[in-house]
Write a structure and sequence with these properties.
The protein is mainly beta and 918 residues long. 11% of the residues lie in helices and 46% in strands. The chain has a 22-stranded antiparallel barrel. It has a 5-stranded mixed sheet with strand order 4-9-10-7-8. Belongs to the TonB-dependent receptor family.
Length: 918
């Protein structure tokens, strides 16, 4: 079933499947986890997880969500746990699929292989800009992965994945205002063993994974693991006969576990991961006149069926990603006190080149080369007293350097495309130049002209512009690039955090925790506009030309000269400059695709942020009976400022206000490509550093501050267990990153909140059968969001957040007398019908309406495995059994008014598995 627009598409399948699996798969209960070991040696815990078996609902799940080893029932935090065994049974090998077993988590991959966003309880960001840190912190073996591009390794040798919901700043040193994903991998073992796995599936999917572990000496153990994944693309670039959305990645990791004494443990990890893929699949949901007429006129092709998986591009979009580093963890047990130190250094190298107009016309290609070098140090002291008081005290240091070089090219068809659009008049082919219909018609074929005639007329217009600028014919929009940029960001932060637990009577624990963070960022932005058309303003240029032809006036070439004219003369020149009948340059504003920007640092903007914040948690937990725990908490969280490292980074309105422009901006103000001559006084104007066509926007988004009230209950009995959390969570200044069709705007939502609950249960009604059910209900709201791009969103429901998310499963294990087993699993994932977003800056503005695209998710996955008693396993799996497709997200077409493109979900995949454990 395919769901695009408003309606109940897919709901009938949800009803049927929900009835068939009325009590199945969850997130907390999905952790087919380990029995608590009899000794303190975690090796026993890991080895038990290596052997697949029917999960027992009365097993106790060990987690480290509170930086201590506790059972899931004991830890007073809303945490979802997925074990390595569940990942294998559900055939989950990619973090993108983790959301199918964790309903409070969403993971999306959009523009590139490395542009992924992790979202918990509806909060998440940082997917497509390295200056925007994620609100959901990802930690792998205790090491913070500062960008999602560095957290995309294949899920190899995983012991468990913990998803901590809500702010976790008092336990984690960096960016946990919305939650934490903590991946825990298996330590090396002192018993020799390992496993190898091979998968072959449709789309020629090949997946190989293996690991080996064992002793080197009595006190040193090692492990090596690696994975390789290759798969043909889901889609096809029709005109180039190339595949898109393929998989081509591998990873390697080596570990040493050193235990010189029973009280000291040292774990060293080095890893390397490589991605080299063609990504990502797009499709058109709406075709505007620019795409229909202008793209066709220059010989371009484009897709018209969103789910046909057909692409028309002139460049194969290559994505390359290298991610590597090492870490060292020292755990020292001093009896009642334990000391932990985690030191890590990581490097990320990410690059891509992508045809961002998503047509076969050679218009423009975006390229980025990014590097991120990160050093982190965490130090913790934890008590284990017999008395009523215990504590955890930690410190964290973070040092990161980011560099990015990017550009937008000018393709061979770009000038013809612009010439065709120029003749259509753009904003000025209507008696009302501000009408939505006038914007929608930009780039359309003029009646009475053939496409060739319209291009010829446009070329003549551009030739006149070349001559006016004193350039050779063909210069405007005929060079090599529209824009080139270089960005750097240095981020240093440190924090002190800790908790104190007070247990006055058995079973009643009061907890107080804190975190103080100091965060400092220094950034630089250098831009080079590549097109001569971008270097002048159509209003200011007209005034210069008009005064040059008027012998009674001096030739005006600067704001100071214009402001010195008599007020009446200023008004006359301004009126003429804004009149389409007098100023023939006005339509050229629509051809200024990338204009000049003001570099940072500059005399007004120092290019730095300085943030600090104190966050805390207060909690009470009570063990009502040995089987039932309850808790209540109030917590705050913090995430430091983010920086807009994009070509759309602009000074804030407090520093610069442009003069009137040739047409309204998306926020309705008349400052699009605003005049410098007509601009009022401002710090940037007064400093004399304003560049042509400069407009205001955002450089920096203010820090996020989160608060959450939560009450929870956790129960565990023989054959049945459940977890319930009810919460009210708010983030002030949530950092939103919005694509406008030509660039990205970074801004703060004044306040965004969500109320809801999370519930999961696990039942073992009969030997070998485990049923699990998990549901998350979210009721989000923009409490305050005066959005300059989409209009005032205050009081609206944020898009992309389903009201209901359900994950269910049924697992049955039949054991033969020989000890061999057949393990069969079916799981179902549902997200209720919801708006994909809150509208599009160009598409919805132009239509004067609020037509919003929607999606509903219904996926069924199944697998079966024959596990022989000699360690050999043979299985088969299918993901997305019924081949449901839905929209991941949508965006305005790049420089194509009225066109909307988006990213479709993957189709059905299936295959066979062979695994051998030894």
């Amino acid at each position: 079933m395919r769901s695009i627009m408003s309606g109940s598409a897919g709901s009938y399948r949800f009803t049927l499947l929900a009835g068939a699996a009325a009590f199945a798969m969850g997130a907390h209960g999905a952790a087919n986890a380990q029995d608590v070991p009899d000794s303190d040696d975690a090796d026993e815990l890991i080895l038990e997880d290596d052997v697949p078996s029917a999960p027992e609902s009365n097993n106790q799940i060990i987690v480290t969500a509170s930086k201590r080893e506790q059972t899931l029932q004991e830890v007073p935090i809303s945490v979802s746990v997925t074990s390595g065994e569940t990942l294998e049974a559900a055939q989950i090998r990619d973090v993108l699929d983790l959301q199918t077993v964790t309903p409070s988590l969403r993971v999306s991959q959009l523009q590139t292989s490395s542009a992924s966003t992790f979202i918990i309880r509806g909060f998440g960001n940082g997917d497509n800009n390295f200056g925007v840190e994620p609100s959901v912190g990802v930690f792998i073996d205790g090491v913070f992965r500062s960008r999602s591009a560095s957290a995309l390794n294949d899920l190899a040798n995983v012991q468990r994945i913990e998803v901590l919901n809500g702010p976790q700043s008092t336990l984690f040193g960096k960016n946990a205002s919305a939650g934490v994903i903590s991946v825990v991998t298996r330590e090396p073992q002192f018993d020799f063993g390992g496993n190898i796995e091979a998968v072959y599936g449709n789309f020629n999917q090949v997946f190989l994974r293996g690991d080996i572990t064992g002793p080197i000496t009595d006190s040193i153990a090692f492990s090596l693991d690696g994975s390789y994944q290759q798969r043909d693309g889901f889609g096809e670039i029709v005109n180039l006969n190339e595949e898109i959305n393929d998989r081509n990645r591998y990873s390697l990791r080596g570990q040493l576990l050193i235990e010189p004494t029973t009280d000291l443990k040292i774990r060293l990890i080095a890893d390397y991961a490589n991605i080299d893929e063609v990504c990502c699949q797009t499709g058109n949901l709406e075709i505007g006149p620019t795409t229909r007429d202008a793209i066709t006129a220059v010989g371009g092709q484009f897709g018209t069926d969103f789910f046909a998986d057909e692409n028309f591009l002139n460049v194969v979009p290559r994505n390359r990603n290298e991610n590597y580093g090492f870490s060292g963890q020292i755990d020292w047990d001093l009896g009642n006190i334990s000391v932990t130190s985690i030191t890590a250094y990581r490097e990320l190298r990410n690059s891509f080149a992508q045809d961002v107009d998503f047509t076969s016309a050679d218009l423009t290609t975006e390229s980025r080369d990014q590097s991120v070098d990160t050093f982190t140090q965490e130090f913790r002291i934890t008590s284990n007293f017999d008395g009523p008081l215990n504590f955890l005290l930690g410190g964290y240091y973070f040092d990161e350097q980011i560099e990015q070089d990017s550009s937008l090219s000018i393709g061979e068809d770009f000038r013809d495309f612009a010439a065709f659009s120029a003749v259509s008049g753009g904003f000025y082919n209507s008696p009302d130049p501000t009408s939505p219909q006038s914007r929608l018609n930009s780039g359309a074929l003029v009646p009475g002209l053939t496409p060739a005639q319209q291009i010829g007329a446009g070329e003549a217009l551009l030739a006149q512009v070349d001559q006016q600028l004193g350039l050779p014919v063909g210069s405007v929009l005929g060079g090599d690039f529209l824009s080139r940029e270089r960005f750097t960001l240095d981020n240093r932060s440190w924090s002190v955090f800790g908790t104190v637990d007070f247990e006055p009577v058995d079973g009643l624990v009061f907890t107080a925790g804190f975190n103080y963070t100091d965060d400092r960022k220094d950034f630089a932005i250098q831009t080079t506009p590549g097109d001569p058309l971008s270097t002048f303003n159509v209003i200011d240029q007209f005034i210069t030309q008009a005064t040059a032809l008027n012998p009674g006036l001096p030739t005006i070439t600067s704001r100071e000269q214009f402001q010195a004219l008599p007020a009446a003369v200023q008004q006359q020149l301004q009126a003429a400059a804004l009149d389409p009948l007098q100023n023939p340059l006005l339509p050229l504003a629509d051809l200024q695709f990338q204009t000049g920007f003001l570099d940072v640092p500059n005399p007004v903007e120092p290019g730095r942020t300085r943030d600090d914040d104190f966050t805390y948690i207060l909690r009470a937990a009570y063990q009502v009976t040995p089987e039932l725990n309850v808790y209540a908490s109030y917590a705050t969280g913090f995430k430091a400022s983010s920086v807009n490292l994009s070509r759309d980074s602009r000074p804030p309105a407090i520093l610069f206000e442009p003069g009137v422009g040739p047409r309204p901006a998306p926020d309705g103000s008349n400052n699009f490509r605003g005049s410098t001559f007509l601009a009022p006084d401002s710090p940037i104007i007064d400093a004399g550093i304003a560049t042509p066509n400069l407009s205001n926007g955002t450089r920096v988004a203010d820090p996020e501050e989160a608060t959450v009230y939560e009450i929870g209950m956790k129960g565990q009995w023989d054959g049945f267990g459940f977890n319930l959390a009810v919460f009210d969570q708010t983030i002030e200044n949530f950092q939103a990153f919005i694509f406008t069709g030509l660039g990205f705007t970074l801004l703060n939502a004044g306040e965004q909140s969500v109320r809801g609950f999370e519930f999961d249960a696990t039942a073992n009604p009969t030997d070998g059968l485990v049923l699990t059910f998990a549901v998350t209900h979210l009721d989000p709201l923009f409490d305050s969001f005066p959005n300059p791009v989409l209009g005032d969103l205050t009081g609206q429901r944020p898009g992309g957040i389903p009201a209901w998310a359900i994950a269910t499963s049924a697992t049955y294990t039949h054991e033969f007398d020989s000890g061999s087993r057949i393990i069969t699993r079916v799981d179902y994932n549902h997200e209720s019908n919801t708006n994909v977003n809150n509208g599009l800056p160009t598409f919805n503005f132009a239509r004067g309406e609020t037509e919003i695209f929607r999606r509903e998710v219904n996926t069924v996955n199944a697998s079966t495995t024959l596990a022989l008693n000699n360690g050999l396993e043979i299985g088969a799996f299918v993901r997305n059994l019924f081949d449901d497709r839905w929209i991941l997200t949508v965006a305005d077409g790049v420089a194509q008014s009225g066109t909307v493109f988006g990213y479709p979900s993957p189709p059905r995949t299936y295959g066979g598995v062979v695994r051998f454990r030894f």
